[in-house]
Amino acid sequence: MREDVEALDISDVTGNWVNAAILAREIDDRIKALADLAHTPLFFGRLDFLHAPGAGVAEGGEGERFYIGRRHVHDADGDPMVIDWRAPVSQAFYRASKKDPHDVALRRRFGYTGGELTAYEDEHLSDPEETSGASALLAAEIERPRVGPMRDIVATIQPEQDEIVRADVHGTVCVQGAPGTGKTAVGLHRVAYLLYAHRERLARTGTLVIGPNRSFLQYIEQVLPALGELDVAQATVEELVAHVPIKGTDTPQAARLKGDARMAEVLRRAVRSGITLPTEGCVVVRGSRRWRVASYELEDIVRELMDRDIRYGAAQAALPQRIAHAVLVKMENGGEAPDDRVQDAVARNAAVKATAKALWPAVDPAKLVLRLLSDAEFLAQCADGILTEDEQAAVLWDKPGRSVKTAPWTAADSVLVDEARDLVERTSSLGHVVLDEAQDLSPMQYRAVGRRCTTGSATVLGDIAQGTTPWSTDTWATALHHLGKPGSRVEELTMGFRVPGEVIDYASRLLPSIAPDLAPASSIRENAGALTIRQIDGTSAPEDTHALDTASALTPATPPALTDAVVAACVTALEHEGSTGLIAADARVPALGAALTAAGLPYLEPGTETSADARLTLVPASLAKGLEYDYVVLDEPAAIVDGEADLRTGLRRLYVCLTRAVSGLDVLHARPLPQALA
């Protein structure tokens, strides 16, 4: 198929160089979409239907066979060999069961290793004598070691996941997913499905995947190309609102207040603070005649624009035209017959422009926010009745800059600038936005994302229990309200496919402290011995202990003893096949990095693709969210908790770190474990 595209001759099929360039680009994109992926098979399943799809039982007819794969494949004659997993006929591969076979006689799953076919497994769904059981190939695919980029789950999508993937493009779907339930992969496959089912619409309006950090986006960026989708933009929230240079950091209190939804009304007042009512009329000279718009008429025009609550910039552009229209009415009453060209000329009149500028001055969003955070009197005027005096003092900069370039902008300030920009000029909307790790956003950040899909839909992914910011949401209803999508469908995924049951059960001990309303997740994987907890002291060699019984009795080890034990644990983990992640509190990362280097263990940074020669990644706890490794060595849980601003956030961060392992988790600590784990 790729060679056919490469052989196309477009030299005589375009009328001009513009069309030729566009067509050449389309061909290049097509060639990229048809690239070979050595370790990704073109098909992974087969469906044998009892009857031709769409014919129905009553009409009879012979059944049909379809191979299901990651993309459509046809032969030299154009006949289909593999059906795209997103096609309607492929839905039965994911939804058919013994109870509801979807007219499927046989479902075959193929097993692959390194891109080569190694096994297959059949289910005779319409055979009442065959009993249903767990799929060995499905389990093997889920548990396969992770080396390389994040893998797509298209071959292992479950019925409840498939319902979310194929949900209608017109609606917003929120997915509450416990660790290991595949919510991120579901979101990415939903993008791929929507681009397949609504390609023309989304090609015009665009799609966007928003992740928590750049490391996470690098980790997932290979999934969509593996599905043949190349035109999906990816960004963090910080990149979306990068209107000013970030130079400072906020205190937790200031960041929480700047992210509060009340700031939207403060900014609205600030944007409109320059609007003034006229004290005198506007005189327009046209030839030998003078036309005067009285101050009360100007006031009516200004008040009407204010009451309409349209964007500030749109009203600013409309004001000269409204004044010009008032002049035209007077000209008509005076016996003249002006047309639209005269109105445009009057709107450009110097007197009209000067009056409009005085009544409705231009607003620079960055300069406005600069003034708001620097001028206590201006902030008090705009925040009166909204923020208390103490809250206003917390929001103000201690050392304000003199200009936009020198101001000590923070990440939260940039979101305020984005809000101000939208109050002045409407933000362009995309067709679909996927927002991952959504529980961590502040109300103002939700508003920033919501502005990017006001006329489109969204897929919101997250886990309340993994909220690791002081302002993280407690309910999805609140988050969807700030996103501008109230009443959207909320789905919950509680069956884990990635994290071993022993590990998720241990991590779930934190739920009563961090998310009491969530039900503990379960796992289809029962890996005995997947969890090891060891307390290290400074005098004896590390040994396996039952930490919950002995934590209070053992004395903390000196840091070198713990560090040595952690390095040794990494060596042991690397003896297994697959990737290893060493996760530690951010403050511990430099010391552990030096120890790994001294021990001759090369390591990667989060987001860097693992390979057969480099399988160890050193992960700061703050960047662990969304990542997964076959084996995880977790350093000093108490230090991870202490690294956050408050206990709840610290325990949530620990919950994230405990649930990154696919095959095994080794927890090493010198200090007592947090009480919530007891």
Automatic annotation (TrEMBL):
Name the UniProt record assigns to this protein: AAA family ATPase
Gene Ontology BP annotations: recombinational repair
Positions of ATP binding: G177, A178, P179, G180, T181, G182, K183, T184
Record domain UvrD-like helicase ATP-binding: where: 156-500
Coiled-coil segments: none
Gene3D superfamilies in alphabetical order: P-loop containing nucleotide triphosphate hydrolases
GO molecular function, a single term: DNA binding
Top-level taxon: Bacteria
Organism annotation: Streptacidiphilus fuscans
Keyword terms of this UniProt record: ATP-binding, Helicase, Hydrolase, Nucleotide-binding
Matching PANTHER family: DNA 3'-5' HELICASE, UVRD / RECB / PCRA DNA HELICASE FAMILY MEMBER
Gene Ontology cellular-component annotations: cytosol
